[in-house]
Amino acid sequence: MLRILAALDPYIERTAPHGRDNARGLRSLILLLRWSGLRIGEAVNLTIDKIEGSKLRLYTQKPGIQVCGVLPDFVVKTLQTIPRVNERFYFWSGIGNLEIAVGSWQKRIRKLMRIAGVKGHPHQFRDTFATELLQAGVPMERVSILLGHQSIRITEKY
User: Taking every pair of C-alpha atoms in the chain, what is the biggest distance, in angstroms?
Assistant: First the structure.
């Protein structure tokens, strides 16, 4: 995680001027993924009304389960400072195909990871979120709920 965050400044410097706002928003997306356990599609589609103070409330993408979690203050602050194309969304214009927007963010994350010298994919942040909760003693049932899994069996499997 430290290497990925340290690679953000070189990533921004290597980005063409017209793409620098998105490059700056990448830090916020990485932190959101890491500290929320959201899937990348859920994070890119996140609207500002889903965060109240430090509470994150939304329905998950796959099973449509309502999830409520708490974000660290530094994650909320970084989300409040990113340049946005749309008043409603943090990481998407709200125009066009969401899958294309998600793909663009996935591409940025892969490029960032290459610069950081880290092998991986965006879903690793979700894995880290779950693993650290379990290591901290959070019951598997609660982790399953936070991940939006329909069943604890899914959580146990992964």
Answer: 46
